[in-house]
Amino acid sequence: MSTLTLMPSGKTLDFPEGQSLLQAILDAGEALVSQCGGQARCGACHVFVTAGRKGVSKLTPAENAKLDSLVGVGSKSRLACQIRSLGTEPVTVELLGALSG
Ligand code: FES
Which segments constitute the 2Fe-2S ferredoxin-type domain (predicted)? Predict the structure, then answer.
């Protein structure tokens, strides 16, 4: 079990091994749009993983390809729908809101 902190709200919640980051964010009541049903196609779930990057699953080829097509992508960029918790360390994610996609 590890924890997930969401910024800018500062909410902290449990982030058990195997859980989808997108689902955890939605369960926390945060507004994050999924337009493709979590298929790494829409890019609407773009977030920055600002801490604990070793606590989440690795970038997949599909995720990498989609990130390449988005504006505002940086070294901390991930697609929330493609991330699963490894349960090994606390993770902090910055939600990008209107900046996403
Ligand atoms: S929900 Fe569409 S890319 Fe993540």
Answer: 2-99
Question: In this model, does residue 63 exceed pLDDT 60?
Answer: yes
Residues whose CB falls within 8 Å of the CB of residue 77, separated by 6 or more in sequence, listed in order: 46, 47, 48, 67, 70
How far does residue 29's CA lie from ligand 1's centre (Å)?
17
Task: Give the pairing type, strands 46-51 and 77-79.
Answer: antiparallel
Q: What is the mean pLDDT of residues 24-43?
A: 93
Using the predicted structure, report yes or no on whether residue 97 has a pLDDT greater than 80: no
Whether ligand 1 lies within 6 angstroms of the CB of 60 is answered as no
List of domains in the chain: 2-99 (3.10.20.30)
